[in-house]
Amino acid sequence: MNAIVDAIAFDIVVLRITIRAIFGDMEWLMKTGNIPLLVLIASVMIWVTHFEISVMGELSAEADTQSKVEIIGEIIPESSPAQIKRKIVYRTNPGPWGNLEYYIVYLCATDDQLDAIEPPESVTVWSFESDDMEKVRKQLRRILKGKSDSDWLGKSESFRVTGEYIELFPPDSVILDLSADQRSELARILRVQGENPYYTDPVIIESSDPTSWFLRAGLSASTVEVIEKLCYQLGQTVVFSDIPYVYSYVQTIGGEETHRFLEALSRTRALVVRLVVDESSDFSSISTYWGAGNHNKMLQPILNSVFENNEVERLDIVHLLTPTARKLINTYPDLSMGIRGKLPDCHWTSLNFFNYQPVSKLLEELTLQHEVASKYNPVKEPLEFGDVLLLLDQSEKRVVHSCVYIADDIVFTKNGLGLMSPWIMMRFGDMIMRYQMDGSVVTRAYRLK
Predict the structure, then answer these.
(1) Residue-wise pLDDT tens digits, 71-84
(2) What does the buried/exposed string (b/e) look like for 384-404 if buried means 16 or more CB atoms within 10 Å of the residue's CB?
C-alpha cells in the first residue's frame, strides 16, 4: 500500500513540476492580463489537487497521521448559540477589546463567481461504498420503513454498480416523501459512504428557518415550499442536501429562478462589528488588546485619530484587523487564488492572519502541524485577538476546522475550501454548530509566539 501511495504521490509531484516548468511562477502570466489562460491553468491546478486529495486520501487512510496535531493546552468551552435577527444591533460583553456592537448582513457570490463554478447535477444520486446490492436494499428499506414505495429498489434502471460503489437513482416521489427524520438518518449514512458531496457538504440554513432564508434570497414561494419540505436536521443544524432535485425543478420554472437558486446556495450570514467610542473607552487597554503584542502594531495611527476626534462615535473593526484579514473580509475567493493548485482553506486563513503578505506554502497539507508546533504556544482563557482555535473531533486526533479569535464570542473564519465559502466574522457558537453535525468537537487555542 505504501508503495502505491508513494508512486502516485511522485507522479503528482512530477505533474506539478511540469506545469510550473512550462509556465514559471505564474507571475508573468498574471501581469499580462491573459485572463482565459490564467483561469484555464488555475482550473487544471485545482483539478490536480482535488485528484491528489481524493486518491491519496483513500489510499493512505490507514496511515493518515498528517492531519493530526499533538494536543496540549486547555480545552476551550463552547458558547451556546442564540438566535439573532435582522436589522437589530447587538452589544457584546465588555472586555479589554472595548465596547463592541454588531449587526448581521447576508453575502452572496457575484455573477462572475457563479459563472466560474460548475452547475449542480440535475439527477439525484445516492452512492454507497458497497458491492452488495441486497445489503444496500435492506439498509434503505429500514430507513424508508414502508412509508415510501420501495419497489423501485428492485428495478435494474434504479441503480448502477461502478467498481466498489453502488449508485442509486431514487424517483422524485421517494425524494419528496421522506420525512425530516428519515432524511437525517439517510444523511448520516451517505456522509460516510461514497461520493455524496451534497450530503458531506450540505447547504446550511444559518437562521434555522428555511422559509425566510430562501424567500429573502429572492426565490419564488413555490420553490421555497419545495425546499422547506426537503430540509432536515443534523445535530442542532438545519441543512438541505437535495440540490439536484431543486435544480431540476427551478429549470422548469424558467426566467431568473435558476440563477436566483444558484445565488441562494452561496448565501452566507456574516457580522459587521463596530467599536463604540465614548468617554468610558480605555484607549490604553483597547490599543494593547488590538495590537496583539506588536503583531498588529500598524493599527495605531487609526486608533490615535479616532480617540483624538471627539466627533467619532463608532469605528468598524475592519480597520483594526490585520492587513490580510482586512483585504479578505466579506469576500469570496477568486479563481486566480487557485493558481498554485489549491484554493485557500480555513488553515491557510488562520496561519496567515498576522502575515502582511499571505504565505503560499501554507496551502500545503503538512503545514498545519509544523506551524502550530514551531510558532505557537498553547493557551487557555482568557483568549486574545489573533489566537488560533483548532476544532478537533471527539478522538482529538483530527483537526476538522480552524479559525481566529477576534473578541468576546466573535471569530474570523472561512468555513470551507470552495469558491462559495467567503471570509467572514461570525459568532463562535454559530460556527461550531457547523462542525458538530457528526458529533461534538473539542476546541483548543494557540497563540503566536
Answers:
(1) 444 555 555 555 66
(2) bbbbbbbbbeeeeeebbbbbb
